[in-house]
Design goal:
The protein is of the alpha+beta class and about 700 residues long. It is built from 19 helices and 40 strands. The longest helix is centred in the N-terminal third of the chain and has 31 residues.
């Protein structure tokens, strides 16, 4: 019987990559690349099906063997970048002061998509949303102005959505796609909420058309698994949810890569560097989760939660620049932009009689970009050339070349600099890595990453040109992800179903917090996640009165091959390495079937004694680190009283009020993260919710960090 597979497809600007992942072991079993079919009558859908067909043929599987199918696409991002959007009909609601506020929203038509091109918007106003005739007249007006999609918005529509819904009900006869602003986001702020809904609507018709083509094409191909789509926060969503909120696919390209690193590389704390030919996208994994924030779209902040990704113009193809007799920098121009081949991928014969020269890659560029004029033509000196010359590119890597050729390519530069080839290569890599290091340091600081546990993980075809050297020159461990050149489609194939629910709830009660949690959990289950595997992280921000619940879950229960799991010695070694101490100084504090908790003591004369803790999973991967924590083991039945005591003892008091400790529970195969809640009673209520469906004698390990 053939093994079932998970398929991930990443639709890029040039190529569409597809991978097959064994559904049981989660190992890569096949990968293909086809040109992205932008100009086909079926658009990118044709390339997706073409990639799927070739992939199934390569791995000798049938469509019935596909248990999960998801794709990531840059279509929404490209639509906004290129200004290829629909005209939005915005129906504002209100009387008196409310009318003044909504009429101002007509100014959203001034948002600039591309230089000289504004967001196409037609505005109409209705004082009474329940006046069906007035609503239909308003819809007719915006249709005459070219509206292809409708948005209804009203002040306080989050708390009183009936008006927005009444407008949509009355507008059904128009046949246009439509949405209410409160459906896209439930956060306060009329202008930002409406702006988010309007941008979502602008790409809605195009995305709907593509969704229908992809869905029908996959169905015709014989795949029964529901089609999922990559989100910009590192998860996937159902096609039905994408039809409602296509804006969630904007910026999903970088999210696919970090999702691959998170799931395949099992990062708990670290920085992911996805390096292509021209740039490096830098993102953070903290406490086993991707870092997200409200994205900036069309130059304005939105309520779209997207991966916090910061881009540096340094990649594998970045060209070397000379100034005042030294390497002045690398990038942002790349060999690809200059239309030149990499010198390190030439032959020794091609590089015969090579002479160093400097050029302007594009009109208006400084003429300090280094090239080699040789027997075989003109070649660019790049970061990849330097990495190969220093032996930083591992065997089998996408960017590896003959080291002798790479050294020959660097020799003219070394002569110009008055150093040897290794010195010239280091100078190039230092210049590129310094730009990346500055951003990495800023993100480590912003997210308060623990440098003892944080790792640098490189992905993308140019990973070897940046990550190994950065790790060698910094105080962080580094490695290149397996199959780094296809880390994005791997991320699509392995991504979990994800949903985030945010509500503004001043003085939120336990019941209200639990209701937001339950809503997020129901949402991922409705999209196909297995109910008994859903994890929900809840955060309550007392400053903004925001209650946020992020739910994640797999579309089916996945059990990895346990033949390759780490033994006790390997797990102890991983913990000791992370704790930066000897194995003899580490002790086992607690454990479950899935996790082992290790700890040590650090005594400092002025700061007293700390008890850092590491939680290591069955694969030998550090999944959680705490700089100073208390660890207690109890059972589900006794957890209520035990946790109440732990929380009471570790709660801190100060000028900012009462702050409950950061609590994480290890139960079964899950780490329930309750650290986002500061109020003790709400924290305990969430703990009860996490444990309510479990057997009374099941062990529970609590890792508790005081916030004092």
């Amino acid at each position: 019987m053939s093994t079932r597979i998970r398929v991930g497809i990443d639709v890029g600007g040039t190529f569409t990559d597809a991978v097959a992942i064994d559904a049981a072991t989660l190992g890569l079993v096949g990968q293909v690349k086809v040109p992205t079919s932008h100009h086909h009558e079926d658009g990118v859908a044709h390339g997706i099906v073409q990639a799927l067909d070739r992939l199934l043929e390569q791995v000798d599987r049938t469509p019935a063997d596909v248990t999960f199918l998801a794709h990531g696409t840059t279509q929404a991002t490209n639509a906004l970048l290129e200004g290829d959007v629909a005209t939005v009909g915005l129906i504002g609601i209100g009387t008196g002061a409310g009318a003044v506020l909504t009429r101002r929203l007509a100014a959203l038509g001034k948002l600039e998509l591309t230089p000289g091109k504004k967001l196409p918007l037609a505005y109409a106003h209705v004082p009474d949303p329940f006046d069906t005739d007035a609503v239909r007249a308003a819809v007719t007006r915006v249709q005459k102005e070219g509206a292809e999609v409708l948005v209804a918005t009203e002040p306080f529509g989050v708390d009183r959505p009936d008006g927005e819904q009444a407008v949509l009900d009355a507008a059904q006869s128009s046949g246009l796609p439509m949405a209410a602003a409160h459906e896209i986001t439930s956060l306060y702020g009329l202008h930002k909420r409406t702006r988010t809904a309007v941008v979502n609507a602008a790409i809605l018709p195009r995305m709907l058309a593509t969704a229908e083509l992809v869905d029908s094409s996959i169905t015709k191909a014989g795949v029964d698994a529901p089609l999922m789509v990559m989100r910009c926060d590192g998860g996937v969503m159902s096609l039905a949810e994408m039809r409602r909120r296509p804006l969630l696919t904007v910026l999903s390209g970088p999210a696919a890569g970090v999702a691959g690193a998170l799931m395949q590389e099992r990062i708990s704390e670290g920085v992911f560097l996805e390096t292509g030919g021209t740039s490096t996208d830098i993102s953070v994994v903290r406490r086993g989760k991707v870092a997200v924030r409200h994205a900036t779209i069309l130059g304005k902040t939105s309520y779209l939660n997207a991966l916090d990704v910061r881009t540096v113009g340094v990649g594998g193809g970045s060209m070397v620049r000379l100034g005042q007799g030294k390497v002045a920098g690398v990038g942002p121009r790349s060999a690809h932009i200059a239309g030149l081949p990499y010198a390190c991928f030439a032959t020794l014969d091609d590089l015969r009689d090579a002479k160093l020269a400097t050029v302007s890659p594009m009109a208006g560029d400084p003429d300090d970009h280094v090239v080699l004029d040789a027997a075989g033509g003109r070649f660019a000196l790049t970061m990849t050339c330097a990495a190969n010359a220093l032996g930083r590119v591992p065997e089998g890597d996408f960017a590896r070349c003959d080291q002798e050729v790479a050294r020959a390519a660097l020799a003219p530069l070394a002569a110009r600099l008055g150093t040897d080839v290794a010195g010239a290569a280091r100078a190039v890599l230092d210049a590129g890595a310094a730009q990346v290091q500055a951003v990495v340091d800023a993100m480590v600081k912003d997210y308060r990453l623990d440098r003892d546990t944080a790792v640098l993980v490189g992905g993308g075809g140019g990973a070897a040109s940046v990550t190994p050297h950065l790790a060698a020159t910094s105080d962080m461990e580094g490695r290149i992800a397996r199959h780094s050149e296809v880390i994005s489609p791997i991320g699509v194939a392995l991504a979990l179903v994800r949903e985030q629910v945010e509500r503004i709830v001043p003085g939120a009660t336990q019941e209200q917090i639990l209701a937001v949690r339950a809503e997020a959990e129901r949402a991922v289950v409705a999209q196909g996640a297995a109910a008994d595997g859903v994890e929900v992280e809840v955060t309550v921000d007392p400053q903004t009165s925001t209650v946020r619940a992020v739910a994640t879950g797999a579309t089916e229960l996945r059990t990895q091959d346990r033949a390759h799991r780490a033994d006790e010695t390997e797990r102890l070694k991983a913990a000791a390495t992370s704790l930066k101490t000897q194995q003899t100084a580490v002790e086992v504090l607690a454990g479950t079937d899935a996790y082992t908790v290790y700890g040590t003591e650090v005594r400092r004369r002025l700061r007293g004694t700390r008890r850092p803790v590491r939680v290591v999973d069955a694969d030998g991967v550090v999944r959680l680190g705490a700089p100073d924590a208390r660890v207690e083991t109890t059972t589900v039945g006794a957890a209520g009283e035990a946790l109440a005591t732990l929380v009471r003892d570790a709660t801190s008091y100060g000028d900012g009020g009462m702050r409950a400790p950061a609590v994480r529970l290890l139960v079964g195969g899950r780490i329930a993260d309750l650290s986002g809640v500061l109020e003790p009673e709400a924290l305990l209520a969430l703990a009860r919710s996490e444990l309510r469906a479990r057997a009374a004698d099941e062990p529970v390990v609590a890792v508790v960090e005081s916030r004092a």
